[in-house]
Structures are given as C-alpha cells and as structure tokens.
Specification:
The complex is a heterodimer of chains A (477) and B (1088). Chain A is α/β, with parallel strands linked by helices. Chain A is built from 13 helices and 17 strands. The longest helix of chain A is centred in the C-terminal third of the chain and has 25 residues. The N terminus of chain A is likely disordered. In chain B, strands 6, 7, 9, 12, 17 and 19 form a six-stranded antiparallel β-sheet that branches. In chain B, strands 8, 10, 11, 13, 16 and 18 form a six-stranded antiparallel β-sheet that branches. In chain B, strands 1-2 form a two-stranded antiparallel ribbon. The N terminus of chain B is likely disordered. The chains are: A alpha/beta (477), B alpha+beta (1088).
C-alpha cells in the first residue's frame, strides 16, 4: 500500500510545524509502532490495515492530505426542526393552517396544516445567512459555518434514523462512524480512548450507537456520562480506591519484573511485550485521563463562556479531548431524545436552542482562538428534522424527507448554505444530501476515501457508506 | 504462503435505491480471480431483438436530430462517466449498465432495460431521471425540460443511431465449474503421506501435518512439558486451570496412557460443555435481548437454549442431530427425545434478531429473514449466502433465487414461546390455569362490585370526612403527636379513608386544581392550629357540603336521574369528510323562535374541522333574509372565531373558484339566532372547508341543543367522571382493601365472598407447576417467497420455491412443501452427503484447539475465504468424524492425542523466518485466555468460583456473581462492560472468532477494579491459611495459578515484597497487593 502520511505536510501548510502546547498534551509515543502491541488477530483483517504498525490505535496515514484531523459531533438527538433553526420558510406565514398537497409525505403520524415558525430569523455575519432567534450566539459565528439545508434520511422514526446517522444503516449491526474513524486513522493519544461519547444518561437506543460492532473492540466509543463529570469515575476503573499511587507503582514494578522474567523465557512474543507496555500505559492513563476530564483546570472565564450546563461541560470536555489528540468526540445534547418536540415547539425549541447556543458558540470561538478550528470538524444536527406542518396544535412530527445540519471548521467553507428544501421546508429539493453523503464528506475531510476504508468481515468488505455516498465537494474550502 | 484474495472493491449499484436492503453489498469486480470462469454469458431476449439494427436512412431525420441535439449530449455529459465502455475499462462502471450503445441501453443493467422504446413507464432511465426509484444523475436532478425530452424521445420510439453490441450481458453461474471448488467436493480419504521424520508422528494427523511442514522446510519444535500440557489441555477442554492435585497426579502418572486418560477425564467433566457450548454460542449470536430500545423486553427464557447447548456438548450429542434439532427439533418425529431436547434448541432461530417495525415493516421483516439465513448458512455451512440477498453472489455459486428459497422457509416460520413439557401435562396445566382465571375473574368482579357499592353508600359521608380531615390538620398543627389513627378512633371514622381523604385534600395535590366543585374548598384558610378544639368553622362545613352535593348530583346524573331530556336536532347532515365535502341543507322552521346552527366534530379528533355555512337564508311570509347579514345572539366555535364571509382561516368562502357569502366557523360550533319574524324555511350549503382533513356534521336545532358540548363544557363531563372515580371507585377514597371487605358485608354476602375465595384457592391448588418455556419457533405457513429485486421487498420478481442451495443439492432439487420446509432443510444440512456441514464443525473444533482453523475463515468456506492449509488432513478428520457417529468427543481426543497438539510453544528462528504466523503448526501458538476462561480462572484460584450448573442468568456487575461467565447475562442492547472490554463479540451477528486486542483500559480493570481486588483478597486469605511461612504460601500460590513451583528469584522477590512494611494509608495488605500482582501476571493470562 503506498499511502503516505500527509499530516505533517498539512501542518506545514497551516504553519504549525513547531511543537505546540497541544503536541505536548498528546502522548503519541514515538516507539509505538515497534511496541508490537498484539493488534488484531481477527481472521479477516482489512486490506486497508496499515501493515507496518501492530498497534491498532497508533496514528495511521490518511489516503490523501486531510483537511481535518478531529471531529466533534454536537448531536441534537431527537431531531431539531429545520424551519425553526436554520432553514427559514416565509411561505409558512402565508400558508399557515393550510395543507397543500405537497405536504402529504409520509411521516410517523398524520399532521395538520402548515405551521409557521414561532421564531424570527435574522441575517447574520457578513455572509448574511439567516439564523433563528433561538441561536443568537451561533448566528454570530455563521461566517465559519456551512448549513446544509437539503439533508434527508430514510425513515421517520428515531431508532432507524439514529442508527443511520451514527452507523450508516438502519439496523443495529454495523460499526459507528467514530469506530470507523478510529479504525482508519488511529488516535494521537495513547493514554486516552480514541473515540469518546459524552451523553448524560443514555440516548434512546443506547450504547449500540457507539458500537464497534464487528470492528475490533479497541475501536468502540468510550461513553462518558457528562451529567456529572467526576474525573475519578469517567472511565471505568480509572481510580484506585485501595492503595496509594506510590504503592501501586511498587506493585506494578513487581508485576513487571514477573512479566519480564516470563517474557525472557519466551522468545519473540509481541503479545506478551504489548501487555507489559499496556500496563504501563494504564498506569499513566490514570493521571492523564483524570487530568483531561478535570474541568477545574480551566479558567473561570472559559467556564463562564461555555456555561456549566451538562451540554456546556460536554462541549468543553470535547475541546480538551480534541486538544489531546482524541480522534472523535460526540456530545449528545441530552439523554433520551430531548429535541423531540411533538408538542409546543415554541417553548421546547426555544429553551433548548438558547440553552445550547452559548456553549456551541463558545466552542467555536475557543477552537478558533487556539488555532484548532482549522483542523477540527464540527458537525451540528439531529437524526432527522421535523415537519413544517403541525402535530397536535403546536408541535411538529418527525421528518426524514428534509432537514438541516451544519458543519464548521476542518476544511469547511464558512458562511454558506448548501442545498434547499421545497418552499415549505418539507423535503430536500435541491442538491440533496443523504446521510451517506454526509458521511462520505466527513471521511473525505479527514483524508479518507470512503470507498477505500473497508473492513473484511463475513466474506465481504464493509464500509461506513455501504454502497452509497457522494462527497459534497461544494462545501469544502 | 497462502495467497490472499486480491479483489477490487467497486460499487455494484447504479445508485441508491430507496429503502434498499441493509445488506446491500458492493460488488467485487473480478480482476484476477479464477472464479471469473464461473460466469458465462447468457443471451438475453433484448439482445436478440436488437439483432436487426434500423437502417439509418430509414430513420426519421427529425427524430435523429432530436436525439443528437437533446439526448446524446446529456448522455455524454451526465451519464457516460459511470455507464460507458470507458467507465467499464476504468472499473468505474455502475450497476452493470452501459448507455453508450443502443443495444446495451435496451438490454439494460442489473435492474432491467434502461429503455423500452415507446414505453416511458417501463424505461428505467426515465424513472431514474425523475428520481422515482433511482436518483440519476446522483449529483442532482436534471431540469424538468431535459427529463421531458427523454420522455418524448422514448415515447417516440427511442430512435438511436448508435451502433455496437451490448457489451454487458447478464452473467449466469456455471454450476458445473463451481462444483469443482475444493469445499464443494465430497471429502475424500487420501493415502497417508510419506514423511522423512518417521519417528515424530504419533497419529495419522501428525503424518499430514508433518508432510506439510517438511514440504515447507519446517521442523516441529520440542514436545511440551507435562506441566504445560495439562494446563493447556485443561483450559482447552474446561476453560479452567488444573488444580495443584491434578497436576501432581498427572506428573506422577508415567504410563503411556496418562495423557489420554487425562483427556477422557476432562471430556467427562460437566465443565467441558460449559466451555465448548460457549464456542457454539458465539456462532449462534446468543443473547437475551435485542439491540434496539422500543418495545423490547428481556427474553427471560433465553437461558434454556444456552443450557440445551451445554447439555448437548456434555452428552456428546451426535453433531448431525445437534444441527437438526436446532433447525427443526419440533418437526422431528422422535419419540425418544423429551420436550426440552426437541424444543429448547430452536432458540438458535428463536433468539434471533427482532427489528423495529414501526415504519418500514416489510424491510424490517426482510432484515430479520436475513439474520436467520446469515446465522444458519455461515454457522452450519460456512457459506455467506446473505451476499446473495440483492444480487447473485459475486464469487460463490449462490444465485439470489437460492437466498429467497431459504428466506421462504423462514418466512413460513414464526417466533414462538413454547413450553418444554409433554403435551398431556400441558393440557392439564392449561385447563387448570383456565379454571384459575375463571375463578379469579369471578372473585375480582364480586369484589369490585361490592367495594363500589359500599363506597357509594357513603356518598353522604363525604362532608364528614372532608371536615374531619380539615380538623385533623388543624389539630396536627397544634399537636405534632396527633395522628390519623387517633383522630379516626376519636371520631369513629375509617382510618384508611381518613388517610386517603387527607392526602387527596392536601393543598399540594395538583389534581385538586382541576376540580371546579372544590373551588370553595381550595379557598379555605390553611389550618393554623388555632381553636382546634372547637367546632369546625362554618365555611369549612359549607365547602364540604358543596362538594358532597356536587358528587351526589353527578351520581344522580350518571344514574339517569335529573338528566336533560335527550333532544334530537331538527336536521342532521351526513358526515362530511374526504371528497364528500358539501351538503345542501333545507329545514322546515315554521313556528320557531330561535335557530341554532350547529357544527359537530365526529369524534375523530382531527384538526382542520373547518366548516362554512354558505348562502344561509331564512325565508317565509316575512320574505327572505341572509343570515350572514343578521346579528346572532351568541356564537361559539372550537377554534379561532366565527367569521362573516370568510372561512375559519380568514380566507374567502369558496368552493373551487365559486365564491359564496356566508358564515365560516370550526367544529364544534353553535350559533344562535333569534328569529325576527315569520319564517318557514332555512336553507344553506354546508361545506367542509379548506384543505381540512377533518370530518364534521351540520345540525340545525330550534331549541337550545343540550346534547352538544362546546369548549370547556367538554372538559366538565370528563371531570365529573374523573371525580366520581376518584371518590367512589373500587380503588377510590372510600375503597376497602381485599382483607377489609368481608367485615363491611352482610352475612349472605360474606358467605358468597368466602366461597368465591375458597374456590379460587382450590383451583390454584389443583394446578401443576408452570412448565418451563423456551423462546423457540414454529411453522406459521407454507408459502414461497418471490425474489426481492435488489433486496427491495417492494419490488418482487419470480417465485423462489423453497428448497436447498443448488450447489449443494444439485439441479434436480426437491422443493419443500411440507409446512415451512424446515425439516427437509435440516435433513439436507445435516446430511453426511453435504460436503460442508461436517467439514465446517471439524474446522471450528480445530480452530479452538490451535488458535487457527485449517481454514482460517471458519465461517467462510467460499471463494473469498482462506483455502485450507492442510486440505487432506481436513478431509481425513471430516470423514472419520462422520464415521465416528459425528462425535465431537471423539474428535477432541483424536486431535489432542496427536504430537502436533502436544508441541511446546517454543520459538525457532529458522521456522519463524519461513512461517511467522505458524500456519503450518511447527509449534503450539501461545494464546491469551478469552474473557470467560480468564474470569473463571480468577474466581477459581481465589477459591470463589461457584460451579452451579445452568438456570437463569445473572449480571456480571452483580458483586455476588461468582458463577462461571457462560451463565452471565448477555445483552445485545448493552453488553456488559467487562465482556465489551475483553473482546466478547457483538451478539447481533454470528461470530466465527474472537478478536484479541490489548488496551490500557483492560489493565485498569486489573489494577483498580473491585472485582479484581476481591479476588486478590480471597487469594491472599486462601494462601495464608495454607501455612505460616511466606515461602510456603508463595509456593502454593504458584501451584494454584501457574501449576509450577517458583524459582529462587521469584520466591525471594515475593518474600521480600510481602514482608515489606505496608504504607499506613493502604487499604490492602502487602499480601493482597502481592496476590493482585500474581493474578495480573501474563503467565496467568496466556497459555503456552
């Protein structure tokens, strides 16, 4: 395989060749490739696996120079309404209460007449992209944001759509995108999990949303409950409650001596050596991971910027993790399906919009200030959108036919919209972007050809994008 | 070296098909593979049609011009990049479709002809351009005008001057050629190979292995030490370490039979089934729930299947029977088997995936069928039949039709919870249960009726209890020791009723706010403890009286007392909904003083019940008057307000383009007019207005309509019912517990109750205990499926008769007509004639003994699987395995008594250079214990292992769970953290082998987890009991954990560690810290 590692080239391009603070926070461990970490003994290794490294989480070369190195997915689970957030539809004012034939698309429930947005939209930034009043601060960042208004997915139900957004298929049988990214690119910090999911409690469907499925277990998402971030508890067994760190060091020295002796009697066994190293990593991880999740290390100003809500904390942890080289962080807006406003969209969306607005904007600004936005791809969106017609008197039903997501940083052209829904915002109409296309685009930005990132399993090569996916080149800077 | 398949990954699809199958899979364009010879061209009808190309000169010139100007440029610029011979040459062809010649356009791609001249509807290119099924081009829909050009062109005969043969023709599988593939050949005994090193082989297996080694210039490493051997064999067969006593006994046994005796002993242990059953459970994707959330409950009987598998291994059930019972145990005519044996094994399918069916049900069902087929074919046959769900298998000789032949069998089968008891026992049980239900029902009915009767008999005690509860609160304020018990006794009240009334009337009770009749009560001052000895204040009495009166009124109303006379409308229209939106109304109103125009909702509770009275007119001797010009006395409407000459939405009154005058409103609505003079008739058009999806009725009354409720009064009715339920229902404020009922009854009723209770008790006593249940399957039909074109259940092709795979059963296959066909399927899979079934299980057994199968891809014996490293050996094992009566225990012993199994894991650099992966078995591959063996071993050496066999599962996170890991709860929805951490497979799909990853989080479990520390503490305590001497204790620890003595260095390391001083704050003793390190050692985790 003749892939070359282009990360360093990219660093040159953006003028960050010298070691940064972030480089110091990451533990790349130069010798990892030779550590001989046992790796994967799966019978059907992928053709794409980098043969020279046996550490499955070691950084791997991309297919081509990447625009982004990390992903933060701000997941608005439950499905925010496009016509109340990023896809203004003045026609809804005019046709409020009517039900034109074009709205007879199948959604989960029968809906009533068209229902105008209770929110005002405002042209924001120099680009003048319109943003709903429930996102005033995000609106100020709009020139870094590309809104895709023509998203669509297959099914108007949460479960299949959650699977589609997270793993590219409507059944719970495939690896999620974070697992694919870790598998394809490894991680830049060996003392932290390569893929972290922040969700207070559980979303509907649950842990299958961050499942490695048939990929090796090392690529599974590490779920952190950000409802209460206690650095001592965020990762299972991260803290020893029984002996001091010094005692543990002595104990580990003893264990290492035993293991070294055992190894010395057994020539040429990488797996044994790998476990010895892994024990040392675990020892270090206790400190590093606790440090990474310790928000008290942030200044008061930063904490104030992000806010101290669960979601705000999640955004801040996401930045700290990305700063340390974690490949992908997902921040779920909340447990369950918070954006699922079947009733009273005005109160529900207003409160969630305003509650998250500040944190999202703080994250974007913070990344930008630190020079990290260029290499960090932010994705905001839910698993589907909502109907422009009403459910009950003032809610909206699920809608897979059209919805909005936005991307920022990581090689995205800011201050633009892409695609469009029909006049009422019901279905994607122009430049349609399926979830598969979104996945293909994200992988592309990370330097991966979505058709080449495959894993041989059950006699076939599997992909995140199955047999679909088109890179939406138009939104790439 | 074994050559890996080199295949180019490419897309097989034209584009996305909406709601296409989940298992769609990209085709592999065959570049270098020999299998391409399996595919031969078939002549298609369309190709023949095109044999006579139209003469160019005969073509209509204008049509040619149309093609050249409107069609060809679009094809070139928008289509050729994926659908042309050039695209084909560049491996970019999509969907097997060429659009650069007329002929290939007519013959089409994988979904059918792109163009059918004269028929735009049948032409796939048109539906693709219109984005109906396919969405072409993928970058976005072309302008409507361009699409219209294509329609016009096709309808006009699709004149197309482009010559050339159809370059792509449908490929059909050449089964004769395919049958030559090694795994489809019947296993044959080949002559035992000659070997140079004739002294080494112990058994025939060794001769096969050695000959391959010698051919590859490899030589076997030394034999393993007996200590290593017993540890290896014991973990292999039982998943547990040998005890120090077992090790000593084996070392002391110098006989030549020593190792075989050891194997026999281990195979007889019930631990054997627990170990090897688990290997099979990986294949069967065993779990106790579903991955998704909605409407799924844990499958509580799942363990029956797990126990069935374990028992089958322990009793060495012949493998062919093991297969048959899992597919069709219920259909086997087998007198000897009990119900557990026949039914519980059906959990193989019965515990399969169930998907969410709320939206696309057909698709979800198709996905479930795929789960059954995938698990069945990979599990038993080592064939990836699921690849053929959307198109013929690209490498193996499995046409899509074969997939749907199998799918039909499972479509005729349903999930079913089935009892594991004999039929007769079951009938007795069911009859007894019916009896219990009957008596239980009678008793419940009696209790409810009596409780409600008693409650309502206290309708005039409402006031008393309300006042008492107020008085109680007031006194409680002054005297904290006061209680409802005291209060009830003093006031001679039922204590439980007082409690309930007190709780109900608590000002914090939000429910009160909705009860209008309690308005006065809610306004009472909060009891402040003053004057609590005096009589209740007058306003309390009055408020209570008011509520009591209200309840009495409501009860009377319910019972038909004082009910307003039912009154019918003078006119009632038919229900207007859907297309039926207009009605002409003409009513005789002679003599009436009032006119009530009513629109009622029909109860379907849908919005958009927009109603308009168009041209409403009264006429008579006084002349004619338009009601829209008249002022009404009162008007109510369910939404917005009543409008003149506008509909409910404020738009002009119109039907189509015709404008009307009139009144717009929305159900439910009442408009009342005082009739100003002598009018005889009322006429109007009733219209269900706008884009409304509702349904309504128009009514006209000449007196106030009392049977119609508008707005808030609707709530009132519900509220009334709610209140009497709260107070008087069998669980209301005046309700009695079952135990208290008798004493409130008069004698004959008391007797009646007693006898009802007695009958229920005796019915319960007469029932045998509930039979155990299993999640199984049963036949639900006997129907073939049609092929789902490209896996899409909405597009069906030819019928695929239920029958077995052609490559295994031949062209003259029998079709299955008996029930689902599972029995015949089971017979064909478990047949000794089947070249795969025995081979596949023999290979799985080999894999678990050596770490790798002879075929490394143990669930894929197809072209894309690995070829066998020792094909003759695999055949020798297979033939003899079948000869042994499909005995797995025979197979284990035969494998383990070979010299190759007994090799050491010593390194040899010469061999390593040639075969670093040890595919040719020159040594034993060192292996990490899987999570089950490791956890079980930790519990075992610490003295904590609970060896209870079988039964319901227990969560691993339960601190008291010291059972073997095979008995742990297994979840698809949320796999246990420990299992997840240590490479346990995702139980959503069948698993052929565990991956093995080494990550720091695993080591955190060793360093810090409570489980690990518990075992360390137990082990320390166990060792301390052995002796007072640290050296002796350490020696015993080494014997327990590693089956050997420590050497001097290890001993002194240990002694110095345990005798060092414990830091003051450490909660673990030095011994506990030491045992934790021992348990965490590589030597404990890896088997040489």
């Amino acid at each position: 395989m003749s892939m070359s590692n282009n990360f360093s080239n990219r660093e040159d391009e953006i003028g960050q060749a010298s070691p940064t603070r972030r480089d110091l926070l990451r533990t790349i461990g130069t010798g990892l490739g030779t550590l001989g970490l046992a790796g994967i003994l799966n019978q059907e290794n992928s053709l794409a696996a980098a043969p020279e490294s046996t550490n499955p989480l070691a950084p791997k070369p991309a297919h081509f120079p990447p625009k982004a190195k990390y992903v933060i997915h701000l997941f608005m689970n439950g499905g925010p309404s496009q016509v109340d957030t990023f896809d203004p539809k003045p026609m809804l004012e005019k046709y409020h209460g009517k039900r034109p034939p074009s709205s007879d698309l199948k959604t989960e429930r029968r809906t009533g007449g068209l229902f105008k947005s209770p929110f005002k939209f405002k042209k924001c930034g120099e680009s003048g992209v319109e943003v709903s009043e429930i996102f005033p601060e995000v609106g100020k960042c709009i020139d870094d944001i590309c809104v895709i208004r023509s998203m669509h997915t297959d099914v108007p139900n949460h479960e299949p759509s959650l699977y589609m957004m997270n793993s590219g298929i409507i059944q719970p049988t495939r690896p999620c995108m974070g697992s694919w990214l870790s598998y394809g690119l490894g991680s830049e910090n060996q003392n932290l999990p390569g893929f972290v999911v922040l969700c207070p409690g559980k979303p509907v469907v649950g842990p299958q949303l961050w499942s490695n499925s048939f990929l090796p277990g090392i690529y599974q998402g590490c779920h952190i409950n950000n409802g209460n971030i206690d650095p001592k508890k965020v990762i299972a067994h991260i803290n020893n409650n029984h002996i001091s760190r010094d005692s543990q060091r002595r104990q580990l020295d003893l264990l290492t001596q035993l293991n070294r002796k055992h190894l010395a009697e057994r020539v040429q066994d990488n797996k044994l050596e790998a476990r010895i190293e892994s024990l040392e990593m675990a020892y270090r991880m206790q400190v590093d991971a606790q440090e990474a999740f310790d928000l008290n290390r942030e200044t008061k100003a930063t904490r104030d910027d992000y806010g101290t809500s669960q979601f705000g904390n999640g955004c801040l942890v996401a930045r700290r993790l990305v700063e340390r080289g974690v490949r992908m962080v997902q921040v779920f807006y909340g447990g369950g399906q918070p954006w699922d406003d079947h009733g009273n969209i005005e109160a529900g969306h207003r409160s969630k919009g305003l509650a998250s607005d500040k944190s999202i904007a703080a994250l974007l600004r913070d990344l930008k200030t630190r020079g990290m936005l260029d290499e960090t791809l932010i994705l905001w969106g839910g698993e589907f959108g909502r109907t422009p017609s009403s459910e009950g008197s003032n809610g909206r039903d699920h809608n897979n036919h059209g919805f909005s997501v936005w991307l920022a940083g990581g090689g995205i052209r800011g201050g633009m919209t892409y695609g469009a829904t029909d006049e009422f915002g019901f279905a994607a109409a122009e430049n349609k972007v399926h979830v598969h296309d979104l996945h293909a685009t994200m992988l592309h930005l990370m330097g991966i050809d979505h058709e080449q990132l495959t894993y041989r399993y059950s006699g076939r090569d599997f992909r995140l994008t199955d047999v679909h996916g088109r890179v939406v080149k138009e939104i790439i800077a | 070296m074994v050559a890996r398949c080199q295949s180019l990954f490419a897309l097989c699809f034209f584009t996305r098909v909406t709601s296409l199958s989940s298992f769609l899979f990209g085709a592999f364009l065959v570049a270098v593979f020999s299998v391409s010879s399996l595919l031969i061209p078939a002549v298609t009808a369309n190709a023949e049609d095109d044999n006579e190309p139209p003469n160019k000169t005969q073509l209509d010139k204008t049509q040619l011009e149309f093609f050249e100007s409107k069609i060809r440029p679009v094809l070139v610029s928008k289509c050729y990049s994926c659908h042309s011979e050039k695209a084909q040459a560049d491996n970019k062809l999509k969907g097997g479709l060429l659009l650069d010649t007329r002929a290939s356009m007519h013959s089409g791609g994988e979904t059918g002809p792109a163009v059918v001249p004269g028929n735009a509807k049948e032409s796939l290119i048109i539906s693709a351009l219109k984005h109906e099924d396919f969405e072409m081009p993928p970058q976005g829909k072309l302008p409507d005008a361009v699409v219209a050009d294509f329609v016009k062109w096709v309808e006009a005969g699709a004149i197309d001057p482009r010559e050339g043969d159809p370059a792509i023709v449908r490929e059909e599988i050449d089964f004769d050629a395919a049958a030559k593939f090694w795994s489809f050949q019947t296993p044959q005994l080949s002559p035992l190979p000659n070997v140079k090193n004739g002294n080494w082989p112990k058994t025939d297996i060794d001769r096969y292995v050695l000959s391959v080694m010698e051919a590859n210039e490899l030589s076997p490493t030394a034999a393993a030490h007996k200590r290593v051997l017993i540890r290896r064999a014991t973990f292999d067969l039982t998943g547990l370490p040998p005890t120090p006593e077992e090790v000593s006994a084996f070392l002391a046994d110098d006989s030549t039979q020593a190792f075989e005796n050891l194997i026999d002993r281990l195979l007889e242990s019930p631990r054997y089934g627990e170990r090897w059953g688990r290997h099979w459970l990986d294949v069967a994707r065993y779990a106790e729930d579903q991955a998704h959330t909605f409407g799924v409950s844990k499958r509580v009987h799942a363990y029956q299947y797990r126990d069935w598998v374990i028992q089958a291994f322990n009793k060495d059930m012949p493998y062919d029977r093991f297969v048959k019972l899992q597919i069709a145990g219920d259909l086997l005519l087998d007198e000897s088997a009990d119900q557990f044996e026949r039914i519980a094994g059906l959990g193989f399918s019965g515990l399969g995936a169930i998907y969410y069916k709320n939206s696309d049900k057909a698709k979800a069902i198709a996905d479930e069928l795929d789960d059954r087929i995938d698990t069945l074919t990979r599990g038993f046959l080592g064939l990836t039949v699921s690849c053929a769900r959307c198109h013929d298998h690209k490498f193996d000789p499995i046409p899509t039709e074969d997939y749907y032949s199998l799918a039909g069998i499972f479509a005729s089968t349903q999930m079913a919870d089935r009892p594991l008891a004999a039929q007769e026992l079951l009938q007795v049980y069911n009859a007894a249960q019916a009896k219990i239900r009957e008596h239980d029902g009678l008793l419940k009915k009696f209790r409810i009726a009596e409780k409600e009767r008693i409650a309502e008999s206290h309708r005039n005690d409402v006031k008393k209890y309300m006042v008492a509860s107020w008085m109680y609160r007031n006194r409680k304020k002054a005297d904290n020791k006061h209680s409802t018990t005291i209060h009830a006794t003093e006031s001679q009240l039922e204590k439980s009723w007082l409690d309930r009334w007190d709780k109900y009337l608590d000002p914090k009770n939000k429910a009160l706010e909705k009860v209008v009749a309690l308005d006065a009560w809610r306004k009472l001052p909060v009891p402040d403890g003053k004057n609590h000895t005096e009589a209740p204040p007058a306003e309390v009495l009055a408020a209570a009286e008011q509520f009591q009166q209200h309840l009495n009124d409501v009860l009377d109303e319910r019972d038909g007392k004082n009910r307003p006379q039912p009154q019918s409308a003078k006119y009632t229209s038919p229900i207007l909904k859907g297309k039926n939106r207009v009605v002409d109304i003409d009513v005789d109103i002679k003599g009436a003083k009032e006119l009530f125009l009513v629109v009622s909702d029909t109860g379907d509770d849908i919005n958009n019940d927009w109603a308009s009275w168009l041209n409403p007119v009264i006429s008579g001797p006084a002349g004619e008057k338009k009601l829209n010009e008249l002022k009404w006395r009162s008007g109510t409407t369910g939404w917005q307000s009543i409008q003149i000459d506008k509909n409910a939405d404020g738009q002009p009154l119109k039907i189509g383009e015709t404008k009307y005058v009139g009144i717009g409103t929305h159900a439910t609505s009442i408009i009342c007019f005082d009739l100003p003079g002598e009018y005889d008739r009322f006429r109007a058009k009733g219209y269900l207005d706008g884009s409304g999806t509702g349904s309504i009725q128009f009514r006209v009354y000449l007196a106030e309509p009392k049977d119609i409720v508008v707005g808030t009064s609707a709530k009132l009715v519900k509220e009334k019912l709610e209140v009497i339920k709260t107070v008087f229902s069998h669980s209301g404020l005046f309700s009695l517990g079952d135990g208290d009922l008798a004493k409130h009854l008069v004698k004959p009723k008391q007797d009646e109750l007693a006898s009802l209770e007695k009958e229920l008790q005796s019915a319960k006593g007469a029932s045998p205990p509930a039979p155990a249940m299993a999640h199984a399957i049963r036949d639900s039909g006997s129907k073939d499926l049609k092929v789902y074109l490209r896996g899409n259940p909405a597009k069906q092709g030819d019928v695929a008769p239920r029958r077995f795979l052609r490559i295994l059963a031949g062209g003259e296959r029998a079709t299955y007509t008996d029930g689902s066909g599972r029995l015949q399927l089971a017979e064909e899979i478990a047949s000794a004639e089947n070249p795969l079934t025995a081979r596949v299980i023999v290979n799985r057994v080999w894999q678990h003994h050596f770490g790798n199968g002879i075929v490394a891809t143990s669930s894929n014996f197809g072209v894309l699987g690995e070829p066998p490293t020792h094909p003759e050996l695999l055949d020798w094992l297979t033939v003899n395995f079948v000869k042994s009566g499909w005995s797995l225990k025979w197979l284990h012993k035969e494998v383990m008594r070979s010299a190759v199994y007994q090799l050491s894991s010593d390194h040899n650099s010469q061999n390593y250079q040639r075969d670093p992966e040890n595919r040719y078995l020159w040594k034993m591959t060192r292996r990490r214990l899987d999570v089950e063996s490791w956890r079980d071993a930790l519990l075992s050496v610490s003295g904590n292992l609970d060896l209870k066999i079988g039964g319901p599962t227990m969560s691993l996170s339960d601190n008291n769970n010291n059972r073997r890991t095979v008995y742990a709860s297994i979840s698809r929805h949320e796999l246990d953290g420990l299992l997840r951490l240590f490479d346990f497979p995702d139980a959503n799909v069948t698993s052929a082998a565990r991956s093995e990853t080494t990550i720091p989080q695993q080591q955190l479990f060793v360093l810090n987890s409570e489980f690990f520390i518990r075992q360390a503490k137990s082990l320390a305590a166990r060792l301390q009991k052995v002796s007072d001497d640290d050296s002796e204790r350490i020696k015993h620890g080494y014997a327990l954990l590693f089956g050997r003595e420590p050497d001097a260095a290890e001993l002194s390391l240990g002694v110095s560690f345990v005798s060092s001083e414990k830091p003051k704050d450490d909660k673990l003793s030095m011994w506990e810290q030491y045992t934790q390190a021992l348990l965490g050692a590589n030597e404990f985790m890896y088997i040489d």
